[in-house]
Design a protein that fits this description.
about 290 residues
């Protein structure tokens, strides 16, 4: 077994040129150092240096370990200094969102984090939108904003806020006269949604799951486009409550709760369970500060 202590001992022997000088540098007696080296040679089954040479000459096996020491020890020293000073070891955080509508409030939090943590690169990955938690475990991502708790044995979920999904309806639609939208009200409607499979949409998973849907679905990539289509009478959408303004105040859209209790979901920041970095926790606190109220 090769340990750091042996590498440091050999490096000290190379730099000082003698057992006596190396022992002094390592705060050991020459006898203790000789025993330490002899034990290492017995474990490795090879001589590491040639006795009674001045300065010390190393065997081919010893030279291999010296090359390893030159590569490894500087990295170990840097890491130790960072840990001692409390400096974050994480230099890059890759974040994605399993919620298209989150960008409305997410970007100010990202901007604030980059200002407070300029030494950490926070990248917002928009390519991985579905199965992002699984990508987290493959080390393709570091952080995920999601309402879907899964793989809890390997992933940590920190709660951010509770969001409510509302039905967005144009004022002339018959459903606009209702105070609450029930599942049967949507069975024959034209629904506008993000390009997400129905089985991953909260509307179908938690509201319409016991009712057969006979209407139409139209997938639209951007929240702004969905809202404009709703206002134009092109269909109904189910979106987070924070997107309602300014369409509601202008009378272009009305919103209604889904069911008497409403359709509410908890938003989480997901990370790998072994991620305890200060940068991740700082971002979490900023996300809570900028989250919709």
């Amino acid at each position: 077994m090769i340990d750091l202590k042996l590498l440091r001992t050999l490096q000290a022997l190379q730099q000082t040129g003698s057992l006596q000088a190396a022992a002094s540098r390592l705060f050991l007696t020459q006898s203790a150092l000789s025993h330490q080296l002899k034990d290492a040679e017995n474990q490795l089954g090879a001589s590491l240096f040639i006795r009674k040479t001045q300065p010390v000459q190393f065997s081919s096996q010893g030279k291999i370990l010296l090359e390893l020491a030159a590569q490894i020890l500087p990295l170990v020293d840097i890491a130790a200094a960072q840990l001692k000073s409390g400096q974050a070891l994480v230099q890059t955080l890759r974040l994605t969102v399993e919620c298209h509508a989150c960008f409305h409030w997410l970007l100010p939090a990202v901007k604030a984090f980059r200002q407070q943590w300029p030494e950490v690169t926070l990248s917002l990955d928009t390519d991985i939108e579905h199965h992002a938690v699984e990508a987290l475990l493959k080390d393709e991502l570091d952080l995920v904003l999601t309402t879907d708790v899964r793989l809890e044995g390997q992933v940590s979920f920190q709660p951010l806020f509770e969001l409510e999904l509302l039905a967005y309806i144009y004022p002339e639609h018959p459903l606009a006269a209702k105070t609450v939208i029930e599942p049967e009200d949507l069975q024959q409607e034209k629904l506008l949604s993000y390009p997400i499979p129905p089985e991953r949409q909260d509307l179908f998973r938690y509201f319409l799951k016991k009712n057969q849907f006979h209407g139409q679905q139209r997938q639209v990539g951007q929240a702004s486009q969905i809202l404009q289509l709703v206002a134009a009478g092109e269909g109904i959408a189910v979106l987070p409550a924070w997107l309602a303004e300014p369409f509601v105040s202008q009378g272009l859209i009305v919103t209604r709760p889904l069911g008497e209790a409403g359709l509410k979901r908890q938003m989480y920041l997901a990370s790998r369970r072994d991620d305890t970095s200060a940068a991740t926790q700082a971002l979490y606190q900023l996300l809570r500060r900028f989250a919709p109220q």
